[in-house]
Amino acid sequence: MYRSHNCGELNVSNINTEVTLAGWVQKSRDKGFMNWVDLRDRYGVTQLIFDEGRSEKSVFELAKTLGREYVIQVKGTVIEREAKNKNMTTGDIEILVSELTILNASLTPPFTIEDETDGGEDIRMKYRYLDIRRNPVKNNLLFRHKVTMEVRKYLSDLDFCEVETPYLIKSTPEGARDFVVPSRMNEGQFYALPQSPQTFKQLLMVGGMDKYFQIVKCFRDEDLRADRQPEFTQIDCEMAFVEQEDILNVFEGLTRHLLKEIKGVDVEKFPRITYDYAMKTYGNDKPDIRFGMEFGELNEFAQHKDFPVFNAAELVVGIAVPGAGIYTRKEIDGLIDWMKRPQVGASGMVYVKCNDDGTYKSSVDKFYDQQDLAHWAKITGAKVGDMIFVVSGPAHKTRTQLSALRMELAARLGLRNPGEFAPLWVVDFPLLELDEESGRYHAMHHPFTSPKPEDMALLETDPGKVRANAYDMVLNGNEIGGGSIRIHDKATQQLMFKYLGFTSEEAKEQFGFLMDAFQFGAPPHGGLAFGLDRLVAILGGQETIRDFIAFPKNNSGRDVMIDAPSKIDDTQLKELHIKLV
Amino acid sequence: MYRSHNCGELNVSNINTEVTLAGWVQKSRDKGFMNWVDLRDRYGVTQLIFDEGRSEKSVFELAKTLGREYVIQVKGTVIEREAKNKNMTTGDIEILVSELTILNASLTPPFTIEDETDGGEDIRMKYRYLDIRRNPVKNNLLFRHKVTMEVRKYLSDLDFCEVETPYLIKSTPEGARDFVVPSRMNEGQFYALPQSPQTFKQLLMVGGMDKYFQIVKCFRDEDLRADRQPEFTQIDCEMAFVEQEDILNVFEGLTRHLLKEIKGVDVEKFPRITYDYAMKTYGNDKPDIRFGMEFGELNEFAQHKDFPVFNAAELVVGIAVPGAGIYTRKEIDGLIDWMKRPQVGASGMVYVKCNDDGTYKSSVDKFYDQQDLAHWAKITGAKVGDMIFVVSGPAHKTRTQLSALRMELAARLGLRNPGEFAPLWVVDFPLLELDEESGRYHAMHHPFTSPKPEDMALLETDPGKVRANAYDMVLNGNEIGGGSIRIHDKATQQLMFKYLGFTSEEAKEQFGFLMDAFQFGAPPHGGLAFGLDRLVAILGGQETIRDFIAFPKNNSGRDVMIDAPSKIDDTQLKELHIKLV
């Protein structure tokens, strides 16, 4: 062992102890006759002192050659510091060094290894191994480990069994794009990397392993939006002989446990709201409920007046922004412009100031009297000093626009406190979603989701109205998990594939093994999956998942550190029975 | 929830309780007026009773329709059994059923769902979800979970941090063949799936994360020998600021912990033997030391006599087989034939019987007198009643042949007791191995392994003699883990690539990122990896890893259950910029 102690543990109780430390030179202050070096490792920083009077000449001289990030080993005595540093756990002591060994030199690092670094995103990704030396990144990785340990412990204690499912599986064109792997031994054939272990976990249920989980990498070859990764990690779970309520309870319990153990936060029983309610109230199926600003639907009091825009709209909807009554005309115009940007796409926005004297001043005073506006205030819950913003148009689109405004204003008003945690369940998701381009329905969750039995009849008449036993867990405006009760009989699964536009041949070829399995005594089952990267980031009070992944890829799916992907040899291509085109 | 209890927990303390159970019909015995059904779930079997006199007619009649593997839910009362079954935890009670619901019917399964099944390997793989219902397979998966939980707990308690490394990495032609993944977004380029996270864990050390582990899938596109899988799981570990001794101690501790916690077995400090000693003594770098039969080198007392075969040999070596003196001539001839099979390849074998009266009878009595043979007995440790078998030829080949005999005879003599655990370390592996075909040296472990500093000079003069700081953990004749102290400076790493026949361009292109990293303060580091599949199998007292993998592939790398790999669409190929040839 190169050290007797680490750089984070020595204190006054160790004074006069002979110790050996090893680590990196964080910084060095050479005062001529005295040289202080901050030695850093994973556990902390300890101050070393080289003193012309007290150190051997060779050691003293060698210390002067140390550069930033040199790896050194020192032997010395723990002594009390003259100038104590209360901000460091080791701030009361320093090491008077008697022996110094340079274990490895270092070039000057391309950015500073400090909590606040001067390195930009690109350079930090290229030298990720240096970035990991920085406390923020290092602590995120340690935090991730702590979360996964707690998850495993909690589920294992409830008799869940972690089962590894295969990574080399079968490609199915349904859903997102697969990454594929050419098979050398099976010419012209390909494996696919799993987008999730969905079918395997269902087969484990058929196999009687009634409580399964796995923390597992999944893969999607999607065009990467900001903060998406081609490989990502799921906490994947499934249970048999359960109803939706049982699943919600177990994983609400897990999440409550994590919040308590990891963050020290107690949360109440999670609210459960339906998808329809979420859309109507927040314009969003993953509402952030750390703050209010719930939607008020104003059709009744905004239509049938002389304002043609509202009269023509399917939906007129507003929110009351607390304390925003003081916004200047310029600020309001800025917000209207913000709403009109293509990313949001509103055609305009109406505002109503709730004056201190109880009157209202709006941009549509020409069309609405004080009584009308009082109705609006009542419905949106606006108080004196608030501002009501109102948008109108096609229902879904308008709700989405107002949701964007709600989130933006909450951020500006500091209502999105990362230290506050407001989880909830959104339930009763629609089974199907109309793809406007193709005019075809596709599964909102996936084709294995069970429709609600009472809605089965609607499949023929009004497929968009069929609700599923599907649910999402939402935390601070992020979907952190989602799942469903699955279909467990062949007939319903066949029907579902039919509705999704599979021919029976296609269904059989791609999912025949699952439908076969359903014929041999498949139990009722369901489950969910958490997005671990996102969950960890949110628990860590941050929103960027990349900071919680040791070696992330950039938006082109490249690992810029190792420079992958890369070309491969012709020999390799030949063995795989493929060539480039 | 479909059940109030599981099928393994009810006993006399529950008598008169109303319960709800759900599970699979294991078997049904219809006696006309009485019908017993064994209901099975993951936790056990509970007997149900349907009685013409005590059950409702509809329930009684419905019970008669139940087939094997039907999934049912029952409500009923726990009653005491008349004929108790002491072999079942639930054997004192049965459930008098009042309500019966068939949750799902089942076709007749293609093999019996019993501990001893009538299904062959192929059919069980195709219907693996049914195979998993069988206790032996189910218990193996639960056992695997238990082992991984203990591993994580042990390492985490020692401050090891589990870090997920990427699966989409860079292909390197060195080593085994990579599985590759064509990149859609980077035309003409490929990711590779990791053969191990080797370089990433080293970069984590450079990054200061000084104790890392990960239970991680790895991939090798090899021609599959029996009991190899294209995807397999490693417990991958690395530490910084350590010497070999520290690593051996930590992972010996882990293994001892597993043996204690999982098997209730206390083992002594692991013996440590060198590679050279292992080869000389057991003819094998992964010796099974649950039994003796150590090699005796007989050159001194077997050569320079009149037996030309031995005189011409580089090595004459024998083992004493305990109690084998009674082997008949036929048995001995059988063993000689066994040794001459192409799989072993011996050209012959000499035997010496150690008679009860202290004399010897050998197949080479013509050339050797009793005193010669007494020397042989002394060197091989043969006792009265034993048999000495002697082979000769080129040293390495001959040792390997005798090792095969040693293992075979131990198996025949019942000395390979799966309930006994004899771990050891084999250390000081050679750094390089001569590839006889190409005449080139390649890395025995991998190119990142550090040569022993004292052997560095031999690299120029006698590369085959250079020893590495490399070690294997061996358990019951299986290598269950291996690792090394790594090179951590650019110059040595460059030198190593040169000796391995890389041009400096090749080295830079493939491993430039690692050598760059070594320039920014890389600490001394080393580690090891356990093969989890094998470790679990051996701890489970079995040798076949496939039985400890939920969804294994066959020897052609196929998943016969889901039928993967498979053809993919032309659209997919086109998007990936490849075509089939």
TrEMBL record, chains A, B:
Any one Gene Ontology BP term: aspartyl-tRNA aminoacylation
InterPro entries documented for this protein: Aa-tRNA-synt_II (IPR004364), aa-tRNA-synth_II (IPR006195), aa-tRNA-synth_II/BPL/LPL (IPR045864), Asp-tRNA-ligase_1 (IPR004524), Asp-tRNA-ligase_1_N (IPR047089), Asp/Asn-tRNA-synth_IIb (IPR002312), AspRS_core (IPR047090), GAD-like_sf (IPR004115)
Region (Aspartate): 198-201
Keyword Protein biosynthesis: yes
Family annotation (PROSITE patterns): AA_TRNA_LIGASE_II (PS50862)
Subcellular location: Cytoplasm
NCBIfam families: aspS_bact, PRK00476.1
Protein name: Aspartate--tRNA ligase
